[in-house]
Amino acid sequence: MKVDPDVDLRQIAADTELFTGAELEGLCKEAGIVALREDISATLVCSQHFQTVRNSLKPALTREDINFYSSFMKNLLLRSSAPSKPKSNHRVKETKKLFILTIPITLGVIGFMLYGGMKYFLTSLDRVPKVLAST
Predict the structure, then answer these.
(1) Which end of the chain has fewer CB within 10 Å, C or N?
(2) Where is the signal peptide (predicted)?
(3) Counting Cβ atoms within 10 Å, is residue 47 exposed (0-12), middle (13-18) or buried (19+)?
(4) 108-118, pLDDT tens digit by residue?
């Protein structure tokens, strides 16, 4: 739907400062739904529709979340720009962890295959006496 000229996108951006991208998408979709509830043939979303939806929403993020993510990214950038240390054992340890984590999955898959094979084998044994009895 088109946006009415009375919609101030800068004001909506200021009012939704802590909103995530998904929340902003939801806000826009809901504003369109509000417009359609008023008039099923509506082709414009007005400022009033955005405000109606905005008043019913609270952002998922807090200022503390933003500060945490910001400091995390700064630390990540600092670590990536720092001279790297040799990682002799790091990869080996990670590979061992991955191997240990995949053992239960592998055993589960093998067990399932054995179960299926045994079930097929036992089912085929049930047919053997019938075949022998008929000859």
Answers:
(1) C
(2) none
(3) middle
(4) 666 667 766 67
